[in-house]
Amino acid sequence: MANELIRAFQLLKEKEWVDLTHTFGPESPHFAAFADAEFTTLFNHDDGFFAQRFSFAGQYGTHLDAPIHFVRNKRFLDELDLKELVLPLVVIDKSKEAEANHDYSISVDDILKFEDEHDKIEEGTFVALRTDWSKRWPDKEAFNNKDADGNNHAPGWSLEALQFLFQERKIKAVGHETFDTDASIDYLKNGALLGEYYVLEQDTYQVELLKNLDKVPATGAIIFNIVPKPEKASGFPVRSFAILP
Question: Quick check: 195 and 158 in contact, CB under 8 A?
Answer without folding.
Answer: yes
